[in-house]
Write the structure tokens for this entry.
Amino acid sequence: MELNHIDIESIVKQVMSEVVGQGATHPQAQTSNTGPVPQRARVAMLTDTKKIEVKAFDIPSINDDEMLIRVEGCGVCGTDVHEYKGDPFGLIPVVLGHEGTGEIVKIGKNIKQDTIGNGLGIGDKIVTSTIPCGVCDSCLTMPDKDNLCENSGIYGLIPDDEKKFNGWFGDYLIIRKGSTFFKVNDMDLKTRLLIEPAAVAVHAVERAKTTGLLSFNSTVLIQGCGPIGLLVMAVIRTMGVENIIAVDGDTNRLDMAKRLGAKHTVNFRHYKDHDQLVLRIKEITKRGADFAFQCTGVPQAAANIWHFVKRGGGLCEVGFFVDNGNCSINPHQDICNKEITAVGSWVYKVSDYPITLDFLRRAKGIGLPIEDLITHEYPLDQLNEAMDTNMKQAGIKIAYVNK
Ligand SMILES: [Zn+2]
Ligand SMILES: [Zn+2]
């Protein structure tokens, strides 16, 4: 192709406008390609138990260490619902939402890259992870286990403050100094909305791997097919494990489990008692599961799962992010005599995020319909309804989507 002078001039103009558009020179002077940033914007604030109100505030100016994000959406988490119901964390008034994603519309000049060194600019899509405090006993003595930080922060669980935009249930979010965030431009919105819960699943599997009991030919049982259980299943399947057994009491969730890699599904409601259920699991696995993930928040289920694991097998408890009470197990029969190796899993480490992004890309690569986990979408002014839907356990993953 031959270019004349006019062609070259127009190409140079186009390239220059793109370079400027990426914020390479004067980031603070840039606005996003989704239009100018308004002066005021809305947040959905939990002002009382079971009461979310949409309020509008002026968007404050961004300093050199901050970013302004136009929110595209945010998943509703069990933690949000827990706070919505009774304010156990004492955060009210608070803008909830920690499973969010959005686009950078303003960026302070000190922010040049994300937490793993990818260059950042206006228009990039990001997700946030936790903010370890760095000074508590856990942070000081186990810096490689930042999920155990005693004062860990996360956007969406910070009480209302003077800057206002500190939860993902809003039109905008202000990312402050010291945060962790990752560029995720190559992922569609639904997948981005699942990154945070997927990180919980990835961390659980990383914990399980420390037992040395997970391999390609392992028989893995996953009890509880809510978003976390289903994502654990998808991680295990993506790792190459084929013998996966899903246990739940909901037909729709078990159907989804099949689509995400379960070879066998077991509806515990079809068995007249626990002994019958154990017999069915033994029938499928011959001697019990090599490894089991407990992903329900039901104490009795946490006690029962020990009976599904074979002698010398492993178990990961990932179901209790809130205290739902006690259960009893028999230390002779369940732990000692069978030599079960059990690990607990708590949230995720910041370093689990890059692994999670890899997992999601690979899961798509092998055709797992991860994005179908999002069954309900609500706009900002219907978050009370979104919480209700979650409480009724309708669907799988409920999300706020900012259209
Ligand atoms: Zn969550
Ligand atoms: Zn700490």
User: Anything to note?
Assistant: The pocket of zinc ion (ligand 2) is lined by residues 132-134, 136, 138-139, 149-151 (CB under 6 Å). The chain has twelve helices and 16 strands. The first helix runs from residue 5 to 21.
